[in-house]
C-alpha cells in the first residue's frame, strides 16, 4: 500500500512537472530555435540547410537543443517561487519605490471606485490600503493571505506550513492542480517576455526583415499578456482553495497540537495566543495583546483630497504595453531589413 501511494504521488508530481515546467520550456526552445534559424534567411532555407547537413552536425544540433531544454526546464523549476513573488510585486527597494508606488496607487484608485462584490476575492479590504500590492496577481494572493487573519485571527505565514501536511490527499490534489496552473501560466508569460526581447534583439542585430522583427517583439508581448491574464484567473481560484483549507481543516491542526478550542472560548483569541507562541515563544496561557494599527506605508499619498480625485491612473501593464510599442517602432525605424 505504501509503495502504491508513492507511485501515485510520483505520477502526480510527474504530470505537474510536465505541465508546469517541461511544456513551457519545450515551446520556448522550439520558438527560439525558429527565430535563430530564420534570422538570416527564410524557413525554407533553414530546412534545406538541415537536409543537406551531415549526420554529425544533425546530432550536434539535436544534442544542443536537448541540453538547452534541460537547462531551461531546470532553471524554470527552481525559479517558480521567485517568479510568483516577482509577479506579486515583492521587488527590490529601487523598483518598489518607483514602479511599486505607481502600481499601488493605481490599484488603490481601482479599489476606491469599485464595489465590494467585485473586489472581495481580488483585493485586500478597502479598510487596509497599506496591504494593496503593485500587481493584480499580488492583490489576489494577498486577499487570500489576509482572509484567515481577518476571519479567525490566524497568521497564514505561521500556520500554513503546519496545516499543509494535515490536508487530505483529495484536497491536496485539487490545491496542487490550481497552483500548477498558476505557475505554468506565469512561466509561459516570463518565457514569452524573454523570447520577445531576446529574439527581437537578435533579429534587429542581424538586420532581419522588419515584419519578422515586429512579429517576434509584439507577438511575444501579446502572448505574455494573454498568459498573465490567465494566471490572474488561476490566482483567484488558488486563493479560494486556500480560504477553504482554513475554513474546513483548521480544527485538525488544533487537535494535532493538542490544543482544541474549549467550550465558551473565543476561537480568535485562541489562535492569536497560539500564533504568538509559534512566532515569539510566548506561552499560550498569556493574554494576547490587541493588534496595533499598522503604520502608514511611506508611499501612501498624504493628501486625502488627492486620493478621492477621479481620473486616469496608469498601471504597470499600461507602461509595459507602451514600452513594447515604442521598442517595436524604434527597432523598425533603425534596423529595417
Task: Write down how many β-strands occur, each being a DSSP E stretch of 2 or more residues.
Answer: 0
Report the end-to-end length measured between terminal Cα atoms.
64 Å
Give the overall average pLDDT: 80
The low-confidence runs, each spanning 5 or more residues with pLDDT under 50, are: 1-13, 287-310
| Helix and strand pattern | HHHHHHHHHHHHH
Percentage of β-strand residues = under 5%
Features:
single chain; mainly alpha
Task: Give a description of the structure.
It is a single chain. With 337 residues, this protein is mostly helical. It has helices at 2-38, 43-52, 55-78, 80-88, 93-113, 116-119, 136-152, 156-163, 169-205, 210-256, 267-280, 304-308, 316-334. The radius of gyration is 25 Å and the shape is elongated. Mean pLDDT is 80; it is low at 1-13 and 287-310.
Layout of secondary structure:
Elements lengths: L1 H37 L4 H10 L2 H24 L1 H9 L4 H21 L2 H4 L16 H17 L3 H8 L5 H37 L4 H47 L10 H14 L23 H5 L7 H19 L3
Helix pairs in contact: 1-3, 1-9, 4-9, 7-10, 9-10, 10-13
Brief account:
The chain has 337 residues and is mainly α.
Amino acid at each position: 500500500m505504501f509503495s502504491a501511494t508513492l507511485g501515485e504521488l510520483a505520477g502526480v508530481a510527474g504530470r505537474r512537472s510536465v505541465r508546469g515546467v517541461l511544456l513551457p520550456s519545450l515551446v520556448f526552445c522550439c520558438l527560439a530555435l525558429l527565430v535563430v534559424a530564420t534570422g538570416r534567411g527564410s524557413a525554407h532555407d533553414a530546412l534545406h540547410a538541415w537536409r543537406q547537413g551531415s549526420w554529425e552536425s544533425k546530432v550536434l544540433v539535436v544534442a544542443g537543443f536537448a541540453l538547452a531544454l534541460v537547462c531551461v526546464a531546470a532553471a524554470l523549476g527552481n525559479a517558480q517561487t521567485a517568479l510568483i513573488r516577482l509577479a506579486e510585486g515583492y521587488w527590490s527597494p529601487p523598483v518598489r519605490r518607483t514602479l511599486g508606488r505607481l502600481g499601488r496607487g493605481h490599484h488603490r484608485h481601482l479599489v476606491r471606485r469599485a464595489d465590494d462584490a467585485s473586489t472581495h476575492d481580488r483585493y485586500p479590504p478597502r479598510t487596509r490600503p497599506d496591504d494593496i500590492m503593485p500587481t493584480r496577481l499580488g492583490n489576489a494572493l494577498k486577499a487570500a493571505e489576509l482572509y484567515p487573519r481577518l476571519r479567525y485571527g490566524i497568521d497564514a505565514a505561521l500556520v500554513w506550513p503546519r496545516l499543509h501536511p494535515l490536508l487530505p490527499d483529495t484536497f491536496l490534489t485539487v490545491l496542487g492542480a490550481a497552483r500548477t496552473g498558476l505557475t505554468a501560466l506565469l512561466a509561459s508569460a516570463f518565457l514569452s517576455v524573454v523570447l520577445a526581447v531576446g529574439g527581437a534583439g537578435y533579429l534587429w542585430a542581424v538586420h532581419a526583415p522588419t515584419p519578422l522583427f515586429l512579429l517576434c517583439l509584439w507577438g511575444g508581448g501579446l502572448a505574455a499578456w494573454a498568459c498573465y491574464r490567465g494566471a490572474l484567473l488561476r490566482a483567484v481560484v488558488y486563493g479560494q482553495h486556500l480560504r477553504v483549507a482554513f475554513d474546513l481543516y483548521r480544527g485538525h491542526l488544533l487537535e494535532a497540537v493538542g490544543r482544541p478550542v474549549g467550550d465558551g472560548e473565543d476561537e480568535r483569541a485562541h489562535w492569536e495566543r497560539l500564533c504568538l507562541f509559534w512566532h515569539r515563544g510566548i506561552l499560550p496561557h498569556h493574554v494576547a495583546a490587541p493588534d496595533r494599527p499598522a503604520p502608514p506605508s511611506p508611499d501612501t499619498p498624504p493628501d486625502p483630497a488627492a486620493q478621492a480625485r477621479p481620473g486616469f491612473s496608469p498601471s504597470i501593464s499600461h507602461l509595459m504595453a507602451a514600452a513594447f510599442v515604442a521598442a517595436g517602432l524604434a527597432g523598425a525605424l533603425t534596423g529595417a531589413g
